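Hey, quick one: can you model this chain's 3D structure?
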Amino acid sequence: MANIRGQAVEAGKKILWVREPKTTVAAEVQAADGGGRILFSQLDIQNHVEPSKPNYDPVAERILVNLLGQ
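Sure thing. Here's the predicted structure for all 70 residues.
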């Protein structure tokens, strides 16, 4: 799994890491303009949240719901 890097991520809120805290795979960063936020995620969630598909994973679905609820 790739690590998310850069100045914006370093200044942002690290949400999830793998192996060690320096290996950030999900982070939230304040948008440069306005009061919005940007969520960066290296998690492979998209292909695992449709219940009718054989690769459905309820844990992936819960992670997506939690990330969107942030």
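One thing worth noting: The first strand starts at residue 13 and ends at 17.
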